[in-house]
Restriction endonuclease (Echinicola vietnamensis), 171 residues
Amino acid sequence: MEKKVLVLNLDHTPIAVVNVQKAMVLTLLEKVSVLADYPFLSIRTIDREFSYPAVVRLDEYKNVPYRGVLLTRSNLFKRDDNECQYCGSPKHLTVDHVIPRSKGGKSSWTNLITACHRCNVLKGDKTPEEVGMLMRKKPFKPTLAYFLAEYAERNAEEWIPFLSAKAVQPG
Ligand SMILES: [Zn+2]
């Protein structure tokens, strides 16, 4: 399976995830430095063998506008670990407005939560307090790093040291 490559800015802020071909081009053009490789993997061309990069850092600072995480159904489910935030069921997931739209509730990260169909119907047009339902966690606005950390835990543990603020090194 092909592995993804994490791209850091010169100040070590994660800015993108690219495929390995793109990372190799950046490396060969000397635009990036490789900070970590995937062990036991390599890239072979006809006459050479390269190590397989996991994390690369731009050699020149790039001004990147802050990109939040897009509010979509699948990103919302991902934030909520694909579980109903009332009963924990992973089945028949729907999007619930914590404060119902009829009561002025907005479609925002902090007012939307993952609920199974059953809990959504049970809650109806009320707030959780009104029906005595408890949320497992308060809905929050996730950052790009939050999503990358989740991806890294499952697919690319080599990234983990670079996703924590403490990993920022001078230079
Ligand atoms: Zn439920």
